[in-house]
Design a protein that fits this description.
heterotrimer, A alpha/beta (about 850), B mainly alpha (about 290), C alpha/beta (about 400), A: about 850 residues, alpha/beta, Rossmann fold, 3 domains, 6-stranded mixed sheet, 24 strands, C: alpha/beta, 2 domains, 7-stranded mixed sheet, 5-stranded parallel sheet, 13 helices, globular
Chain lengths: ~850, ~290, ~400
Amino acid sequence: MKSLRKFKNPIPKLNKPVALDCTIILAVIGGLIGVSITGGYTQFVIGLVAITTVLCVGLNVLYGLTGLVSLGQVGFFAIGAYASVILTLAGLNFWLSLVAATLIAAIAGCVLAISAVRMAGPFLAMVTIAFAFIVEHGAIEWRSLTGGQNGLMGFPMPQIGSYVFAERDLVMLCVIVGGIGLLAFRRLAVSGWGMAMTSMRDAEIAASSLGYNAFAVKASGFAIAAAVAGLAGALYAPLMMFIAPSNFPISQSILYLFAVILGGAGTVLGPFVGASVSVLLPELLSDFAEYRLLIFGALLIVVLLIAPRGLVGMAERFIPIAKRGVKAIPPAEIEAGLKAYPKSDGLTVDNVSISFGGVKAVNSVSFAAKPGQVTSIIGPNGAGKTTLLNIISGFYKPTEGAVRIGDQDIAGRPTDFAARSGIARTYQATRLFENMSVIDNVIAGLPVGRFGAPFSVIASDKNRSHAAGLLAFCGYLGDIDARAGDLPHVDRRLVEIARSLATKPGVLLLDEPAAGLMHADKVSLAKLLRQLADAGITVVLVEHDMEMVMGISDHILAVDAGTPIIFGSPQAVQNDPQVIAAYLGDGEMTARPRPIPFEVGASPVIETLRLTAGYGAAPVLQSVDLKVQQGEMVALLGANGAGKSTFLTALAGLLRPVKGSIVLNNEYIHTLAPHQIVEQGLILVPEGRQVFPELTVRENIELGAYKQPKPVSKDELEAILKRFPRLRDRINSLAGHLSGGEQQMMAIARGLVAKPKALLLDEPSLGLAPAMTEELYAILGELRDEGVTILLVDQMATMALSVADYAYVLEQGQVVAQGKASELRRDERLIAAYLGGAEQTTKEPKKVAQ
Amino acid sequence: MTLLIAALITGIGLGSMYGLVALGFQITYSVSSKVNFAQGSMVMLGAVLGFVFCEQYGFPVILGYPLAILCCGVAGILVEFFLVRPFAIRNSEAWLMATVAGGILLDNVVLFTFGNEPRTLPSNLVSESWNVFGTGVYPQQILIPIAAIGVALALNALFRHTRQGRALLAVVQNLQAAKLMGINTTVMVTGSFAISSMLAGCAGLLIAPLFSVHSDMGTLFGLKAFAVAILGGMTSAYAVMLAGFIYGLVEAGVTTYLGSSYTFIVVFALVIAVLTIKPSGLFGRAAIKKV
Amino acid sequence: MPISSHIPKLTRRAALLGAAAALMFSAVLPAHNARAEDTVKLGLVAALSGQSAKSGEAITRGIMLAIDKINADGGVLGKPIELVSRDDEANPGKGLVAARELAQREGVAAIIGGLDTPVSFAIVPFVNQQKIPFIGPWAAGTGITKNGADENYVFRVSAVDEYVDEAITEYLIANYGAKKPGMILINNPWGESNEKGLLKALDKRGMEHAGIEKFESNDVDVVPQLTRLKENGADSLFVVANVAPTAQVIKSLDRMGWDVPISSHWGPAGGRFTELAGKSGEKVHFIQTYLFTDAADPMFVKLQEKFPEIKTLADVTPATGIANAYDATLLTAAAIEKAGSTDGAAIRQAMYEISGIKGMIKTYDTPFTPDDQDALGPEDYTFAHFVDGQIIPIK
């Protein structure tokens, strides 16, 4: 690796695509030599390998690039074979029949795609299986055309002029077609087509919002796979000299899929390697006659177990990756470019509403966002902000109203259409193409949904320079060839913004881009957004961080429970009494502090030591030390994305592995699975309640005592109902039918029947009405007084601090402050500094739960 | 008329059997989003073991059949452990291929141990036929739907009213919360495969007396049951059973009125048509697109 | 990982692939580098797995028995005969590939095989083109031997559908006075072949039929088809299907309570037919070319010696397969000896010249002529039925 880094611009001859091309050409030459020096059966087997390679190349486009499983490839193969034979027997020239067979199969692929593109997983598998069966049985029954089960034979060999092909010539033709197939795949994979397919495979939603049409991408995958299978079939027929329905059983489809997986799905040489093994393996086993299938089945399993990424994938691990140099366009030029391209005349949302199951999630919202301005949408959690973005970007069709880009109403048009109309967006939880490199993520945005020429490289030097420039402009400083899935949180945000800019948007929608960022990062993000607006882009921002919102916005729309409150300047919004009421709550909510101050006990119940954990490569928690004493109530505070929930899931065992240690009552639990941790007495009441919707409240509560030696007794249940009187009437209702507050009560009750040694509560007040929140906190106060050890995570910092004994403040996964709750609560400065926007959002729970 | 009655009886009998096998697909799918493509082989295994225990070893039916079903359960556990779990851990879709291979393996192991001749699993319920509206009916044909519905109802009761059954439902409804209740979800997944295979084994034992017992008898049953599970939408057990009856009746209708050569073509064309109009199955719930 | 940045460099990959490819292709390089081997190879292509496996096993046993006898007598051309078996899984495509492999890689002198008619049909053009003698011990499709080739390399020591159909038609008329038979045929080329034969036999007599019904080998229930035949007034039935499907027909008849004379091709003879079909299976009368009637039969004793798993006469069904394959092997060996070489054309020529070969079914005097490449004819058929699990000749 080190030595490779020296060559920023490798000598073209050693460049990777060239290497692959050479390998393929060598393999073809090898095959041709093999054909000319051997004969008879070996020659025939080489032909079979070549034909299977051709077919698998097509399947590789569908499965490897587009990510769609087809168990029906043999159907297209059969269609190709029959079409070519029937046409040849009817007197058509072989070469014309070959073309016709390919086209007919492609059409069949498109027809199947109409049904198949809307499905995934087993549903897709079923449709393709059904298709293959219909083709096989159709061939059996349509005797006049196909010869029924006796099949067709006696068709002429291909000929050029008066030269009639011998089997050897035919096999050579197959080998050459196989080579062309591999070369074509090599080029297709790195073209705009390949990019569209891989994007669609990795993240369909993100690909759509870059302008790629899901149907077009998937249908082209199907059509290419089908056409190629048809071509393979047309070559297969003369080689076999005989075709019958039994040549095309469904099991053959499975074999082809196996060949692709075995070779390495998505790799260039995978189909060749896979085809070679799947054709030659049965040959090697032919002496075992009747035991062949037995051995084949066993080998198949072994191979799947030991080579999960396929043989080529396995080999690749041992071959160093050559880096390709890039000359990034300087930021000034990028900025000039952003200013230069034509943009739409802003975004107008006119009286838009949407309902889900009778609940109005967005109710008559109107606003206009102008080019060159930052327009922000604020509101408490659940106010409908993201839903509004989803309507604008085409994911939801509004029940009424219009979304205009300039004069064009795009309401209800699909996402990819919105994207091509100039709307780009980012997501609350970033949606990158995880398996692509950072720079390819950005390049994917450049064509704005166009596939481009099928065989021209999309990662051209020009596009790479552009993409690298955009990344640098957005402040991304990392490795542009890194796998996107391995990036830390901040970088993911930046890459996503760079990618959306690649589509040359007129309107840029950002969904909580600052969540989880450190103060310094937020400042540079704000600067970037301002720069974008100044370049003439219409920036629409949904954000919780009030400091940032108030700092950069030209206009602000405040919404609550889906209904707009005010649309105006930051000052106007800040001073609007309705906003203050909605946002900060009516009056001051309080929770009852402990009557007698808490005495620190002898030993902690929970203790973490340098706990580090995360998803993928980037740690979300870094070296967190935290203690909860027996009978103590500890609050864990921090802004959105600070790592609070991650900390709790790590404690509960849902996130594994973790570094550092977690001690519960003097025992290490950081290697235990969740169910073992429950056994140890650590109970988490998760964020969002997580009820079992189709079980009754009673059954839900009873499940809480799953690990208890005895089921919940009558007395126990009575005690619970006394504590949570709201549940008494609902005890036999399905949990899914409860209100949010009731569900939260039930979730806590479910945790209590497990007789916890320590109870973890994750955002219990999220989405609850103020009255309900107060009721809930009253109960938490009671539990605390009764001596239950509690670790509480809540956005409502002041509320949490009023009931807690001790508190920790988390930022960027690190503990930045801790102390007695009463002291922290008085220290307004500390809260403001470390909670950033959380100061304002602590008192937001106005939203009534569903 | 006679034809219609014959078709109805055949359709309901086969349909309930497909439903039973399909229920197995549905259970593992709801618990783990995986299915056992060797399910057809499990049908075969149930019938073959029933034959081996009751005919070759001479066990009484009351002992031999439950034992055969139990063995199917064990086979299901092995499938999950060796052919599904290693791939699920890697987040790979290769379990699909692996279970297919498992089916091939099992079929061939049975071929070499049980033998290559079709055998008959005798039953008193096929020795004499009853005349129902002019068509002959074996008591076994009446038994199949009754038993199938009985098994499905018993299973439902088991899920609702036992501790482990509830736990399984909990896993289906909310995996994460189930873990937080202290439920060992890994065991539950394994259990779902065991139950799934036992259902298939049950179906195999029920159909065997009407059919013959041989090593590749299950392949087509498995495939049709998969179609049924998909048509049912993979979410609700009731929907899957209902889809089973519909499939059975359509199949019997096509066989009776068009001839059995067209059964596959017509039935599978209908499957594609239905899925084109309703991509999540006849009774499946369309997932709300989450952004 | 489809995007270029993850595609590695040339040299090591190419080397790796080259090595792998070389390794794999070496496996399929011709195994017979020299024809001057010390054995004469005979190929067998038959279904050794799946539903027809039992019949494939019978054929294998017949061939093995014959090879033992020939080798004990000094082999052919002074060398012992060696059998190379390939499983065709009852799939014509696989059968054809297997035949190619046997001919081109193993270099067999002749191929015995074709259990299922479609498999034989697929192999026929290939052997005629490659000039490899192909001797059928089982598949009865008429067109297999009557294939219209100028130089026909396909021979058969088995029943022929056309003759069988004639015989079973005659049998139904003579024994049951059938006037309007119905046909219930398996939906495959074998069924199709017999459909033609039966229609021809009925035409010849100016008789009408009650309908032609098809069914699939996996059908659980054949009642609908049989009900239609019954409603059309069928007074007797022709059945053409293998063991398990024929059993499904009988079970469906039982269920309907329809007692009707049935004559059948030899399908039921393989395996445990009466176990599958029940007692009513004994009502089916079917064609056979050979039967073991007596456990003291010297051939049966030899079989038991060679294959100890054979305990009773019930274990050797179908005897037909054993006898046909045994005789076919003897005839082939005789032709090779007569030809004096393993050259296909010479063996074919010799096939017409052999005579006086004593087989299990009969003594063959000039069994083949260029006009008739079938060694057995209607005169060699007997009718049989099951009694207590054994096949017993009728009359």
